## 1
Amino acid sequence: MCGFSGILKIKDRNDIDLKKTVSAMCDRLVHRGPDDKGLWIDEQNTIALAHQRLAIIDLSLAGHQPMISKCGRYVLVFNGEIYNHKSIRNELENDILFKNENYSWEGQSDTEILLTAITIWGFAKTLERIVGMFAIACWDLNQNTLFLTRDRIGEKPLYYGVKNNLLVFASELDAFEEVKDFPLDINREIIPFYLKRSFIPAPFSIYKGIHKLIPGTYLEINMDQKNEVSNLKPIQHWNLKDQLVKSQKNKLNKSDKSLINNIDFLIKDSIKNKMVADVPIGAFLSGGLDSSIVVSIMQSLSSNKIKTYTLGFQESEYDESHYAKKIAKFLGTDHKEFILKPSEVIKVVTRLTDIYDEPFADISQIPMVLISELASKEVKVCLSGDGGDEIFAGYNRYIFGANSWRIIKCFPLQLRIFISEFILSISLEKLKRIFILPSLFFPNILRLNIIDEKIYKFANLITARNSSEIYHKIFHQGANFNNIVKGVSKNQNEFISTNDEDINLNTVHKMILEDMRCYLPDDILVKVDRATMYSSLETRLPLLDHRLINYVFRVPTEKKIRFFKGKWILRKLLNKYIPEKLYDRPKKGFSVPMAEWLRGPLREWAEDLIDSKRIEKDGFFNPFLVEKKWKEHLSGKKNWSSLLWNILIFQLWLNKINNS
């Protein structure tokens, strides 16, 4: 787990000081790799690579980067881990080219094995064989070709852009600020999407002309062939949609027991690979299904107590730390927890834009930052259960949203719009009083937490005009995002055009596809990567092994969702390790009491950032509408916490770049 940066001159007349610039870029990434720094510049002063290393496997200088291949043809910088590096090494040692060239190993690092694989097999074929999380930049001196790639799911970040005869790339966006004559102009058109979803989707970034490389793709820039580098087209090395569509044509017709045993084997194999490290290792334990299965299997594979970490809240409606503690006690892990007090929230909130390199407002970033800091005091690697909701169908939208159109379409649209407007016109306190008492009599599997947010989602959902709108209506929040943002095109409310109406998938798998190519890599994995790397902590996600994903895709939907419960097959697997009573409860999600915090400990901080005069001066939002939402929220009439938080984080980020 590391960070890297690089610059490729498109034309020689650019007089940039490559060594000084890439070094300064890498200094902005030191938190990603504080153990070592390396620079490489070619003799023609055309390309420069820089690397910050977080040493996890082979702590010696044999893992130093940038790394040059034995034949002298390739130079590589790499962020991530290749989990099957030992088996790749064995394959290489049996390869005729390896034997004929009398290759020998300098050390045990996965970087050296990756570079040797590229040398023997070529770049594209190597990508097909490796299992891991990675962002890679590789320069081919023989062909004057630069390769940039990102792992299949998008665990590791990679930004790139072309301006003023320079191709610039880096692990984080802040590094671009160090490049002279590389203007950073805010992409105003993406802000409505950001307000709606709390993140900025690939291939876009907050800056015009700087892109996130799409997961599962690579760029090939050949300078001898006069590439149109201003219009680079990523090449896919793994296609998520194709994998999902193929899986539905080849579903698994197996018994529950057989499926559970096979999934158990695949997860166990993935966890074994991810427990390989030359540094202390631990795990995040939230008390939910995904982290519980990861920790349970980790502990079953270890003769020592696994170190586990959790974060809780004083607000009982959001706190799950007591569940994590019970599971840790049953498994016998070395468990630590941190309970966040409302008075301490401001300490982490004011640091968020130092941690996240562009506006990013998933409110669960706060506990993620704190738990990462807690764990990094004792370990350098943590395993996490992220990805389980997507591949095993755990989100409530898969369970209820996917089937809601069958009921919704039975009622006239105008009637549904009237009902929606009526619900949204009722004050928050009245809604709670109306629904809280009846909900106590619901069966446990139908009982809802954070009931006001669920009611708002329902009110937006029923205004859908067709089944394809259901997914996007879930995130609507009842606001017109284009009206709030000044100076944007009125027809650009959606930045992701998927064209999946005719795709041969059921509604659940269409939603899974949407989540896995956007929400998972651009929200969940960004949250985890930036928070953990800020504390120089590597996080590994065993549920996102693509071999496990390919298998679980083939599991029939009815094996994933049963009796109004998602992740049914995973629940049965977890029951092999811990009693059902320790995890059988309504899904709560990794959330925080932001609505209450904005009316309490964060109020003064928030009012300063969204002061009408300040909003008007900055010029991005409509000050009248922002003030209206703020007053409605403070009064308790509405819960605008998600929208307000997104605006606040943008304002905080804007203040940072204006003062940098």
## 2
Amino acid sequence: MRKLTLFLALLNTLSGYAQDGVLDPTFGNGGKVINNINNYRDQIASSIAFQKDNKIVMAGLFQNDFGRDFVTIRYNTDGSLDSTYNNDGIAITSLSNRDYGASVAIQEDGKIVVAGSTYNGNDKDIAVLRYNTDGSLDFTFNDSGIVITPIGEEDEYGTSVAIQEDGKIVVAGSTYNGYDNDFAVVRYNIDGSLDPTFNDSGIVITPIGDENESGNSISIQQDGKIVVAGSSSNGHDTGFAVVRYNIDGSLDPTFNNNGTITTSIGERSVGIGRSVAINDDGAIVVAGQYKSGAECNYAIVKYKNNGTVDSTFNKTGQIIIPFCPSCSLVYDGSIIIQSVGKIIFGGTRTNGSNFDFMLIRYNAYGVIDSSFGNNGMILTNFDNEYNFLSALNVQDDKIVAAGMTVPADMSYFHIAIARYNVVITDIKNISERFIPYDYKLQQNFPNPFNPITIIKYNLPKRTSVSLKIYNFAGQLIKTLVNEKQQMGSYIVNWNGNDEQSCSVTSGVYLCRLQTNDFVQTRKMILVR
């Protein structure tokens, strides 16, 4: 009877937990970290990736007395610099005086891949660097750890990098054809050589409209197709552009009939897609800048898997996010999708004088999620007048946002990072209809339990598997599985008294199974 009473009391307290989307006090100084590398003036974060051990890797730009260099920084989970990475947590690589690290991704073996651009003395080329886990350049990659790829005779930019399931590296960007810019996608083999199975040369150039185009963000679908988002101009206005390629580099005709789509946000306007994310159901979400006249805004557009605009998203397929009524620049916007399909947008918010990091969360239909932060929005200031968000990523129960913080006198630009706690699962939004029948996280036995329960699950194919325990506030308690597993049935025990679980108290816990294809969560009750 006592256990039943306690069980009912626990269920009655579920609504008493705070809203998710708050700064993580276990990270840096109250959830925030500022880096000043070697006391130099200019440092900017452009991209974030996570290792399997939850360490954070940031890529960006570092400017010293001689010019701009590639920089990668690795942080421990508490926000401190990781001294096992190049001795001080920071790796600076100079190829020219005009280098820029635009994007970072981490291979299955932990090696770190950074894509960007470098100056060859006449123009810019795409540059890809690969680092070992200790921060040294990986000499198994093109014998130097560095690959420089010129495409034409003028400027090329690498803006985004992704790694395929087979380990091949795909970089999206742009190239100048003598008249204007086109989308450019380059695929490399694991050793850094160009992949001849990709458009026979390893390089695909895609003109879309009549004038400038730029591929700014890349994502790879579960079926291996490559999605690149950016912008395309027709001479009157510039719109969000999305291109989908087959695995061999050809345009995918099942995507809007010809492999491309351009979406105008408004008449005589400029829309630039800066970030792309793909949902588990194949929906594609693009976020970026939108400028009409003197007014600057952000915009989000959602597409169905077939390349058409999804009109169920905010009834129009688009969301406009106000930034500033009169300005010349909107800083880059970023988009990520949580495992339950919620969309998190990251950008910069201004009240006319100060600028802050801004996060907004929407549901799959484009409605603001009021349970996130303050009525769906989080604003973060680093005690400076100007704080610009330029990178965003999510891992399990944490959101990490990065960019730069700048004082009013513009005397320096320093890297700024913030980490937020999120409730990873909203029980009411988990529906069995989103779960393929062959996957199954079976009910744990016993339930309620004390202190050990047995968790069973099935896998219909080889896939990456994450099996984790959270408390009901969304904090990670125990990682049970985080690896690739073969097809089959698995049984895992969770002991609430083990060292990592720190002898958790009575309460409601969430067991979450996630693969590349789906996520499923079940409640468990521990009664002491």
## 3
Amino acid sequence: MNKKRNRIIRITSIVALVVLFVAVLAVFSVQSEDEGAQFSPGENTDVMEFDPYIENESRLDNSLLEYGKVLNKYASSDYADYTGEPIVLEGTSYASVSGGEVSAFTEDYYDEDSDSRIEAVPSAVVTTGTTTTLVYKFKVSETALYSLQLEYFMPKSKATEALVSFTVNEKKPFLEASAIELGRLYEQYEVGKNDDAGNEIKAKQRETFAWQTYSVNHAEGLYRNPYKFLLQASDKEQTIEITFSRQAVVLKSLSFIAPMNNPTYEEYKKSIDAPEYTGQALERIEIEDSIAVKNDMGITMAWDENYCSSPSSYGLINYNIFGGERWSEGGQSITFKTCEVPEDGWYQIAFRYQSPVSDIAAYREIKIDGQIPFKEMEEYCFPASDSWIGEPLKDENQNPYLFYLTKGTHEITMAVKIGPLRHEILALNESIDYISELIKKVVQVTGSSRNSDGSYDVDKNRDWDLQLYIPNIKSEVETCRDTLYDAYNNICQLNGNTIPYYASSVKVAADLFQKLADNTEKVPASLNDINTDISSISDSVTNMKKQGLTLDYAVIDSKDAAYDYATSNFWQNMYVSGVRFVRSFTTDYASIGVVGEEELESLPEIKVYASFGREQFEMLRNLVTEDFTPKNNVKVDLTMVAGAEGLIMLRYVAGTAPDASLTFGVGSVIEYAMRGALYPLDTLEGFDAYLDEETSPFHPQNFVPTQY
């Protein structure tokens, strides 16, 4: 009987294990049908609602209102967009200048590092890095809404953006008019270079220089389209006052132009009579290798060890992806070149992409050859995903968009946008301000004291008749509750009905205000909870603005092209893990990045320890082999050592210490110096220049902790 029972138990256990194994395979091998499914964000407009907490906010002066609310005023007054020819003002046609000095751009600008040359344009004006204000006069023949366009470039300087503000007829047209940024351009070079072990070396970056045409927009990509502002027709001359600060700028022209008015996709399709492409599949566009220009040095290539990432990087290192969390700030843009398009026609454009943070949709403005083809590309949503997705750009019915491309190569520009979340960001910011004011009122009534850590001391055993002192407190709490619940629901909807991590704090705050609305006498005892929720909502607003997107490759192909193998399955993941495990026993991580090792054998050598991460170590190795060694004829044996500082003294005693360490705590200098383990720098020729305030690249006080 026992044998039979044991046999049944064994068989049952084996069957259970098999079922469990099959279930695990199903989970890891099958991608959710909802992964990458496009959805409709609903109405997506730049027109913002007025603050529900402020009575008659619409009566405030435009200079005190956010652009979206000013746009609301324009809409209610039925102002039309300007449709005529641009009103162009040349850079040197200013009526007056104040602040810094200016001059005409009469000599060619040449940058040797990037081999960039910009020919002189005498009608362009050159400002200095100091605050400079230029006033231009012009006439307007039509009352309408205009956009402002600048054509400029920035000479090499501190690699930061220039700040710009402007007024029209001595008045700010909206609040954000004093916070405009002009960006720089950067490029990659020496792409695809490998070290002696076969690992790819990350491409170098440098600033490049060219004229940029910029339609003035929100610096953080908050709004869908460039700014519009009202100009009234008049026989009198009008003025625009534009102020540059922080960086020198060469301004070629500024123009009042017709605002952006792109066709819908259906209108775009009807406007071009051309056949769909049905030829052979086109080559894959490896985006990390195809970047033509970007506006932020922080957006870089990286490597991904997923089996399906192209080219593979689970063996030797290959930089095969681009973007990620570093490409998440509003306004950051990249431009990459496409493959050769064989003929004129309609093509489908697809991407293999991934959200660097789970369940977060990302919005991007997409241009082809500098132009947005149709409205749906003004803020295209890449749906949230937990894994890699290979999908064409498509509508909410999952139908791929088709793009008309002419024969030859093209450039695709993608810029980070906030998307329709802008409305929820504004609502939450207004709620934070209003709740803070509500707390002040309650504190005044209850006399609650505030501690150094920001918390409140509240007498929880005392009852307060708050409605006697704050008659509208119930309606105020209900308004906060409703606004927070609406924001939470909209955030989830705009994320494809997937709850993003930053939405939880909004839901928690809404639930709290629901309880307080039921009994306002709980408000004083809940001050600390309310205060905590304010901080959490503020963090959520910051995180809502970060919409990272990682790109692997792009595909331009026919309408019916298939994009398979974007997501690796369980067996492929197991294979990658096995390869990585085996290689961990054979890879010499200390030699990563070494180029031309045989040619360096005859040079003198120094040994250096560094406790950096793998990517930092590789970048340092690149600097050594490509810059330090050629200039100084000294070979560097750079070794990646965990906890280098703790090993140096032991190796010094044993006579095997390195010549230098790059991760050495300042607090240990005296301890090592008194044992004679450090070389005195002041015995080196020319070191005195580093102690001189006028000649030293460092602050002289930095050397104080290292003196013995």
